[in-house]
């Protein structure tokens, strides 16, 4: 039996005690997530996380560390997700830029605010907790 996970990237961005979060409509639910998405064919993980962050938040993201690689499978779903999460900073906001669907809005939220919010996956808080715990791996830990 072969394993074919969805390969995704996510941007973990902190400013003071707030995190860059996108509000999305998935199905009939509003959920919160980091800027994240699938790696496209021929694209490196770093290129993908920069692109996804810009498309979903209108912020230019500069990865500084690999936060971790996370596996998650939604209950009742046959496919797993393998998420490469990168921590870094943003610059050059483009507020006039149209956000990719299904993003509804961009927020800067605290961890406490996220505890009360519907999250797209448990990985949202796991990545924030790892970031707050000081997890930082070199970008060179992943080759693509």
Core attributes:
single chain, 144 residues, alpha+beta, Nucleoside Triphosphate Pyrophosphohydrolase, seven-stranded mixed β-sheet, 3 helices, 42% strand, globular
Describe the structure.
With 144 residues, this protein is an alpha+beta fold. The protein has one domain (6-141): Nucleoside Triphosphate Pyrophosphohydrolase. The protein is built from three helices and seven strands. The chain has helices spanning 45-57, 111-115, 123-132, and strands at residues 6-15, 18-26, 29-33, 36-38, 60-73, 80-91, 103-109. Strands 1, 2, 3, 4, 5, 6 and 7 form a seven-stranded mixed beta sheet that branches. A hairpin with a 2-residue loop joins strand 1 (6-15) and strand 2. The chain is globular. The mean pLDDT is 96.
Question: Concise description?
Answer:
This protein is of the alpha+beta class. The protein contains 3 helices and 7 strands.
CATH architecture: Alpha-Beta Complex
| Estimated radius of gyration | 14 Å
CATH superfamily: Nucleoside Triphosphate Pyrophosphohydrolase
Distance between the termini: 25 Å
Helix vs. strand class: alpha+beta
Largest sheet: 7 strands, mixed
Low-confidence stretches: none
Map the helices and strands.
Blueprint: E1 6-15, E2 18-26, E3 29-33, E4 36-38, H1 45-57, E5 60-73, E6 80-91, E7 103-109, H2 111-115, H3 123-132
Parallel strand pairs: 1-6
Antiparallel strand pairs: 1-2, 1-4, 2-3, 2-7, 5-6
